[in-house]
Design brief:
This protein is an alpha/beta fold and 249 residues long. Helices cover 45% and strands 15% of the residues. The radius of gyration is 17 Å and the shape is globular. The model has no long low-confidence stretch (mean pLDDT 95). Belongs to the short-chain dehydrogenases/reductases (SDR) family.
Amino acid sequence: MSGELRGRTAIITGAAGGIGAVSARLFAEAGANVVCADLSLEGAQAVAAGLPSALAVRVDVADSASVAAMVAAAVERFGRLDCAFNNAGIEVEARPTHEADEDVFDRTIAVNLRGVFLCLKHEIAAMLKTGGGSIVNTASIAGVGGAPNMPAYAASKHGVIGLTRTAALEYARLGIRVNAVCPGVVRTAMMKAAIAAAPARADRVAGMHPMNRVAEPEEVARAALWLCSDAASFITGDALRVDGGVGAR
């Protein structure tokens, strides 16, 4: 893996924790200059401080000016943008559709879907100036099938896959590849807290996956790194499942 992205610059959103923080480390190990972007500047700075060539920026992915400033900061610091892992997103409390809160729905779409759109918009504009690049968006298994009691989350992640495939077709001849990763349940801090609150959930959540366990953040991060690398040079418009076999059912 060492050297796969040497000399390239990568933006990772949601970099303060979970999949994003692990991704920042792996991209750095692969030789990339890493822009750690997160709503929590303090969290992004803590991650960036442990990397050899990194910049921490605060970003609200639902705000166009904030996303534009993130991309501009990356280009100003490192001269170009080659890769992006648009990973920032939010999860919401499970409720059936008829009980779903409209404000929560709107906020979920704003962050998870509008946020990916805005990142694509500004990242692609920067990449077109330097001859291309590779972008990976975080979708979900909830983006390729129904997700009972998660209407906003499922809608947002279906939308992410639609955006991914549309952008992939638009820029395939211009040197920009756009793909998505679709994780199953991942062992993040939020997931650990939910299990701690109700330990019986652990077996149930693991059992959702044919491999009978949840994903580690590094497993999703490695998939994103691979899609950004030249090893995936003929892959664009794909929604890669990292789901322990859920999609095989």
